[in-house]
């Protein structure tokens, strides 16, 4: 008997970094993982690239316009109720002021302190990659 593969939901996450800090957003009451901090983004819709998804989500969730830069890392995580593949990319702000439409808070966190906050579990490997990148010696 063949077993169906568990469904994996593809989610894009935007790493908005500035001066050794990164922007994180807190999932609001009533949402999956309420109270956890995450890199803003969301589920990649059918036919959408991760880049398109991030531009759409930042507009919907914060009313800002961004561009998507380099890929950071991916994290595959099994929550009790769903499996997700988180694809993280650096993003840059083009225009707009952050207005909270979905989350209940945003804040800047020093990359070296990211692993100490109440991050969504799927984000922990991404935070570890960011910390590692920050600690890499600059090539002459
Ligand atoms: N946007 C985002 N979602 C994340 C991160 N880490 C993480 O585990 N997730 C999970 O990935 C899923 C992303 O979907 P979403 O942001 O569109 O969330 P949602 O509440 O609308 O999902 P739902 O429609 O299933 O309720 C959620 O289950 C969320 O908890 C992250 O860094 N960013």
Automatic annotation (TrEMBL):
**Which PROSITE patterns does this one have?**
NUDIX, NUDIX_BOX
Residue ranges of every copy of the Nudix hydrolase domain listed in the record: 6-132
Q: Which residues bind Mg(2+)?
A: 41, 61
Task: Enumerate the GO terms in the molecular function aspect.
Answer: 8-oxo-7,8-dihydrodeoxyguanosine triphosphate pyrophosphatase activity; 8-oxo-7,8-dihydroguanosine triphosphate pyrophosphatase activity; 8-oxo-dGDP phosphatase activity; 8-oxo-GDP phosphatase activity; metal ion binding
Q: Which CDD domains match?
A: NUDIX_MutT_NudA_like
Q: Which domain of life is it from?
A: Bacteria
> Which Pfam family is an annotated match for this chain, by its short name?
NUDIX
Name the positions where 8-oxo-dGTP binds.
27, 32, 38-41
Signal sequence bounds: none
Q: Which cofactor is essential here? A: Mg(2+)
Q: What class of enzyme is it?
A: hydrolase
List the GO biological process terms. DNA repair; DNA replication
Kindly state which reaction or reactions the protein catalyses.
Answer: 8-oxo-GTP + H2O = 8-oxo-GMP + diphosphate + H(+); 8-oxo-dGTP + H2O = 8-oxo-dGMP + diphosphate + H(+)
PANTHER family named in the record: 8-OXO-DGTP DIPHOSPHATASE, NUDIX HYDROLASE FAMILY PROTEIN
**Family to which this protein belongs:** Belongs to the Nudix hydrolase family.
Identify this protein by name.
Answer: 8-oxo-dGTP diphosphatase
């Amino acid at each position: 008997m063949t077993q169906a593969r568990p469904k994996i939901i593809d989610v894009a996450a935007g790493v908005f970094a500035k001066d050794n800090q990164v922007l994180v957003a807190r999932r609001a009451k009533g949402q999956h993982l309420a109270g956890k901090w995450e890199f803003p983004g969301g589920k990649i819709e059918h036919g959408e690239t991760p880049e398109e998804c991030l531009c759409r989500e930042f507009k919907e969730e914060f009313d800002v316009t961004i561009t998507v830069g380099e890929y950071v890392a991916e994290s595959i995580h099994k929550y009790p109720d769903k499996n997700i593949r988180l694809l993280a990319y650096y993003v840059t702000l083009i225009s707009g002021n952050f207005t909270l439409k979905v989350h209940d808070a945003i804040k800047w966190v020093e990359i070296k302190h990211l692993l100490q906050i109440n991050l969504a579990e799927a984000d922990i490997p991404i935070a570890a990659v960011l910390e590692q990148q920050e600690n890499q010696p600059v090539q002459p």
